[in-house]
Specification:
It contains 13 helices and no strands. It has 280 residues and is an all-alpha fold. Helix 3 packs across helix 12, helix 7 packs parallel to helix 9 and helix 7 runs antiparallel to helix 13. Helices cover 79% and strands 0% of the residues.
Length: 280
C-alpha cells in the first residue's frame, strides 16, 4: 500500500459509492488492475487491503453524515418522540422506522452472501459481468418509471424492497446506490426521494461494517505493519470526493435520466470482463 494507490482508490471510492456504478466493483477493478500491471498475483489480497476498503467506505460514511446532518437529527428526534409517545405518525418517525426495517432486511440478505462476495474479490471478470447486470437494471428502472405515476412519500412496500435490494448489492459489481434507487423507481418513487432514501439507508450498514469488522477480523499485531498514513490519506480523500459527489449527484438525479450510468456500467463491465479473462 502506497500513497499514490491510496489516493487513487480514495477518489474511486468517493465517486463510485454514490454514483450507481458499484464502488465495491470499482475497488476490485482498481486493485486488480494495479496488481496485473505490477505483476502481482490477484490471489494475493491482504488483510491490509480488506481493511483499507472498509476505511474507504468509512470515509464516504462521514460524507453522508455531514451532508444529511440536519435530516439525520430530525429523524432521530422524531424517533425518540415516537418511542416516548408510542406515536410514529410523524413523517420523519416513519422514515426512521423504514430505515431500521430496510437495514434489518439488508443484513438478512447480505449475510449469506458474505463468503461469495469475498471470493468475487479474486474474480474481477465475474464482477465485470455483474456490473453489466447493474447497467441493465438501471435501463429497466428508467423504462418502467416513465410509465408510472410518481410519489414523494416512502411507503412500507418500497422500504422492504429497497432493503432487500441493498442486501443483494453486497456482491461487488451490483451497485448499492444503483439497485436501491432503481428499486425505488420501480415502485413509483420520484428520483429525489429514491436517491435520498438510498443514501440514508447506507448509513447503518457502513457504520456497522466499519465498527465491527476491525474487531473480529483484524490481527492487532499484524495491523502494526499497515501503512496507516496511506490509509488515513485514502480515507480523507474518499470522504472529500464523496461529499462533492453527493452534492452534485442529488441535483443530477432530480433532473436527468440514470441511463448514462447504465451505458457506463455495460461498457466498463464488458471491457473489464474481457481484460481480466485474457490477461489475468
Amino acid at each position: 500500500m502506497n500513497f499514490l494507490q491510496a489516493i487513487l482508490m480514495g477518489i474511486v471510492q468517493g465517486l463510485s459509492e454514490f454514483l450507481p456504478i458499484s464502488s465495491s466493483g470499482h475497488l476490485v477493478f482498481t486493485s486488480n488492475f494495479y496488481k496485473v500491471f505490477k505483476g502481482i498475483e490477484i490471489v494475493q489480497h491482504s488483510n491490509e487491503e480488506i481493511f483499507f476498503d472498509i476505511m474507504l467506505h468509512f470515509g464516504t460514511l462521514i460524507a453522508v453524515l455531514i451532508f444529511f446532518r440536519k435530516e439525520i437529527a430530525e429523524i432521530l428526534k422524531a424517533l425518540w418522540c415516537g418511542i416516548k409517545t408510542k406515536d410514529f405518525s410523524d413523517k420523519n418517525a416513519k422514515l426512521g422506522l423504514y430505515i431500521i426495517l430496510g437495514t434489518v432486511l439488508t443484513i438478512v440478505v447480505a449475510y449469506p452472501l458474505e463468503k461469495v462476495a469475498e471470493k468475487l474479490v479474486y474474480s474481477p471478470a465475474i464482477v465485470g459481468i455483474l456490473l453489466v447486470i447493474t447497467g441493465i437494471v438501471l435501463f429497466y428502472s428508467e423504462y418502467r418509471s416513465k410509465r408510472m405515476a410518481t410519489k414523494t412519500d416512502l411507503d412500507l412496500k418500497s422500504s422492504i424492497l429497497i432493503g432487500l435490494a441493498q442486501g443483494i448489492a453486497a456482491l461487488p459489481g451490483f451497485s448499492r446506490s444503483g439497485w436501491t434507487i432503481a428499486t425505488g423507481l420501480f415502485n413509483g418513487l420520484d428520483r429525489l426521494t429514491a436517491a435520498r432514501y438510498s443514501f440514508l439507508l447506507s448509513i447503518p450498514i457502513i457504520l456497522g461494517a466499519s465498527m465491527v469488522y476491525p474487531f473480529i477480523k483484524i490481527d492487532l499485531h499484524e495491523a502494526l505493519t499497515y501503512n496507516w498514513y496511506a490509509i488515513a490519506v485514502g480515507t480523507l480523500v474518499s470522504g472529500l470526493v464523496g461529499y462533492l459527489c453527493i452534492k452534485y449527484f442529488i441535483k443530477f438525479v432530480a433532473r436527468f435520466s440514470l441511463a448514462i450510468f447504465g451505458y457506463y456500467c455495460v461498457v466498463v463491465g464488458i471491457l473489464t470482463a474481457v481484460f481480466f479473462t485474457l490477461f489475468a
